[in-house]
Amino acid sequence: MGHYLGVINKLLDGSYNSLSTKKKIEIPIEEIIIEESILNVEFNFTKKIFNQKNLILSGKNSYQVFGEKVLASLKKNNVNCEIKILDEYETSKKFAEDLANSLSNYQNIITIGSGSVIDISKFVSSKNNQNLYIFCSSLSAAATTSTVSLLNKGIKESVKSKIPDAIIIDLENLKNAPPRLLRSSLGDVLCRSTCQIDWLTSHLLLNTKYDETPFALQYEDEAFLLKNSKKILQGDYDTLAALSRMTLLNGIAAIIIGSTHAGSMGEHLISHYIDMFMGNQHPNTLHGEQVGVATILISKMQNQFIKNKTLKFNELNIDEKIFQELFGDNLSSKMFEQFKSKYFNADKIEFINDLLEKNWSLFRVKLAKYLLPTDNIIKALVECGACVSNEDLKISGKFFNEAIHNSFLLRDRFSYLDIAHYTKTIQEYLVKE
Ligand SMILES: [Zn+2]
Question: Which of 43, 190, 223, 344 is most enclosed, with most CB atoms within 10 A?
């Protein structure tokens, strides 16, 4: 039982019940450690691997800041390892496959890293059927997700990989992480309300699946972070632990519900659009920085619509031509097919308006329960010094507006971006150009 693990303790010992199935939730991760310092921690996983062939796999920078401490703690736990430091690496399938082949004679992989190196390790250990233990050099949602995104012949591919057997976070190390990374982590976790309301609205209007469990796991930490975000950069351990838990819970949410609907909705569509279409104009902003700014926008939309006593959709004329212009010949028909599953044609509009007329007052009450005032999100980001506008991101108003306008075309996920289109109000949310 770790003091800093909070609700994650219940997930590890199997005593947390799903709100939808009422059954105990089981997660495949055996051990999660969040401690002020790992130097005196007795790990469970090391008891299994102390006399095996182990390899530490790390990025150069991560090893520089965290390597010595990890080695010392493994030594105290009687674990010997060889070390491979990746001076250069790329998140391509070819690179990961070659690396996997060269490391197949090890029984266990111990990773020191974040995002990309964790992704590469997940691929390697999955391919070689090795156990995987991760020491997070900074916070990364990649630690708890089962897929990795790798470039295959220039196209991003989501590849099934393995979920780590153990994840270890050292708060003292995290305290020294670059402020920008910590701010970005905050931006990425504050989308609880926008994801929940997008997904619940999709459930109410399109009858798609919904489960409150992954959100309920986050309510307490979110409330704490909204109040205390300024303490993140002061190195306060309780706040850093809450941020760590929310980041891990984001990935665990996908394990519980089998999809990423609890952590990636309208706000993530805008961020994906920026990554897909900005090309060499991309200001190298981080995922969480983009998501934080987009979350503010989606939250404004949600608050506005849910405040209104009525909601009525108009017909939208979307045809394959728009997709061709945006995605080119290769992708457009696939993207259009995907979009059609959430698209309301004339018949469906009539049905949905009937449904809204009868039930919107009831839906509003249901949805309002999970709303956050947008100002609370903005305040939390500002107090931590994080980006809150496209100008902070150094993304032009013109491109940001294009993202706001078009990102609903990217996926079959229904969000308030769609609602803004069906109500012909999307223009109200555009920024100054
Ligand atoms: Zn994210």
Answer: 190
Domain membership of residue 221 (yes or no) is: no
53/167 same-domain check:
yes
**Confidence category of residue 151, pLDDT binned at 50, 70, 90:** confident
Q: Which of 152, 175, 198 is the last residue of a domain?
A: 175
Is residue 327 one of the residues assigned to a domain? Answer: yes
CA of 179 to the centre of ligand 1 (A): 18
Helices and strands per DSSP (H, E), number in the chain: 20, 8
Q: What letter would DSSP give residue 320?
A: H
Of the pLDDT bands very low, low, confident and very high (cuts 50, 70, 90), residue 4 is very high
Maximal C-alpha separation, the chain: 68
Give the pLDDT of residue 1.
Answer: 67
CA of 62 relative to ligand 1 center, distance in Å: 21
Q: What is the pLDDT of residues 109-141, one digit of tens each?
A: 999 999 899 999 999 999 999 999 999 999 988
> Whole-angstrom Cα distance, residue 120 to residue 194?
30
